[in-house]
Structure formats: C-alpha cells, structure tokens
Design a protein that fits this description.
transferase; Rhodanese-like_dom_sf; five-stranded parallel β-sheet
Length: about 280
C-alpha cells in the first residue's frame, strides 16, 4: 500500500501531469442523503466525480447496520462506472478531514478492493483552497467517464463480522465521541454505550487544529496498541478514519467491523457497557 495521504500542492501538480489521478468527491452529511450531490453541484475540485455515501459506498440499512457494505458485485459496478482501474491512481476528498465518506472510500478501495494507489487529500477542500486551488461551479454530477473492466479481488480478511467481534479477544477501538462511547449521549442509535472491553479513540483525535492528519510519529504514540485490533464506530464510516490513521502511522491495520454499534445493538442479548 502506498502512502495514504496526498497534500494539496502535490495533488495540484499531479492533476497537471501526464497521468492525473481519478479524483473522487466524497463529501456527505449524515442524515442528509442529498447533501453530497448538492455540495458537488455548488462547487467541486476540477475533474472530480461525485461519489455518494449511501448510494455508492453502502447498501441499504438493515440487519447489517446503518451503512453495511454493498455486495462486491454492486461495488464493482460502481468502480467500473467511475472508470477506475488499478493502473490509475485515485484521490478521495471531503470537507471534514476525511472523517466521513472519504475515509470510507479509501478503505473500500485500498483495503477491501485492493487498489494499489489510493490517497486521501490531507486537509480536504479547505487545504485545496489554501494552496491556491480553484473550485468549479458547473458540471453534471451524474456524468461518468468511459467505464472500466476492473474486476477487484476483494479482501475479506480486512473485515470482521459481528459473531467474530463477540468471540475474539482482539482490542476493539471505537471511533465515536467519548460522550457516545460512555453512553452519556446517543444522537443516532436507539441504544447508548459501547462494546464491552473496547477503548475509545475518537476519529477527530487523528487531526490537528488545522484539519490535517497529525504527524506519523504522533499518531504512532497515541493510537491504541495490541496484538490484534478491530476498528468500529456507529456504522462503519468514521472507523475507517482510524484505520487510515494506523496506515499514516505505519502501524498494522485494524480489521473493520462494518456493522459497528448499529449492528451490535440489534440483538438485545449482546452485552453493552457504559462509562469509561
């Protein structure tokens, strides 16, 4: 796996080069299914394609939680429709430090589908503008390049299912806020708390005050450490940001529990912990 981040300046040079990356706009707002499309229409990085969290990066909510993975054949169709091939680099971006759909897109492409060169724009749209980049205010969010014929070899070893989470002794790393982890507040799911034995590492802690990822050495010191790790959150989205942080730190990557808390609580027999 290549370096998982790209700076705005490096991206600007790459977009002007002979082999520009495929650029994916992954902006999203939880609870606002049309927000990503609207944001792309309002303004977007030149050459970017709109990718939708609910339509492209998840299946319908259900037994597998609020954002279960799409079936491999469904995601393959998305990748082919975006014209993605293993030979062309991919850069994903959002406007929230990568904490929502951009990190999820990075994980699905790099860790699950096995694309060899996927990077997240460090600092997102804000960093792009600060570096002198422009945004375009026209274009068709449904426009697509010539489709590819890529057939990814999906890596299910990057995943862990709910039964394995319950049975394994791997350290569970929760990417939600400390208030949600402790069960003091739960704005999304019907039950508050966390998986017993888990530790809290809010995804926001991976970023510095400017919205960029912290330095690799700082992340390496801060991230929870164990022989085996499982990343989870509310629905398998911000947990990908923690997986990405481990990649930035040069550490072994946790497996992702995609269903996360929203799947865990569907069975009332599963134990729930509160507090620290």
């Amino acid at each position: 796996m290549n370096e998982p981040l790209i700076s705005a300046a490096t991206l600007a040079d790459a977009l002007e080069g002979p082999h520009p990356p495929r650029l994916l706009d992954c902006r999203a707002r939880l609870g606002e299914p049309d927000a990503g499309r609207r944001l792309w229409v309002e303004a977007h990085l030149p050459g970017s394609l709109h990718v939708d969290l609910d339509r492209d990066l998840a299946a319908a909510p259900g037994a597998g939680g609020r954002h279960p993975l799409p079936a491999p054949e469904a995601f393959t169709a998305v990748l082919q429709g975006l014209g993605i091939t293993p030979q062309q680099p991919v850069v994903v971006y959002d406007d929230m430090g990568g904490q929502l759909a951009a990190a999820r897109a990075w994980w699905m492409l790099a860790c699950w589908a096995g694309h060899p060169d996927v990077r997240l724009l460090d600092g997102g749209v804000k960093a792009w503008l600060a570096a002198g980049g422009e945004l375009l205010e026209d274009g068709d969010p449904d426009a697509a390049p010539a489709p590819s014929g890529w057939q990814p070899a999906y890596r299910d070893a990057a995943l862990v299912g709910v039964d394995e989470v319950a049975a394994e002794e791997a350290l569970k790393v929760d990417a939600r806020s400390r208030e949600r982890f402790r069960g003091e507040a739960e704005p999304v799911d019907p039950v508050a708390g966390h998986i017993p034995g888990a530790v809290c590492r809010p995804s926001a802690d991976n970023l510095d005050a400017s919205g960029h990822f912290k330095r690799a050495d700082a992340l390496a010191r801060e991230l929870p450490e164990a022989d085996a790790l499982i990343a989870y959150c509310g629905s398998g989205v911000t947990a990908c940001h923690n997986v990405l942080a481990y990649a930035v730190a040069g550490r072994a990557l946790p497996r992702l529990f995609v269903g996360s808390w929203s799947e865990w609580i569907r069975d009332p027999a599963r134990p729930i912990a509160t507090g620290d």
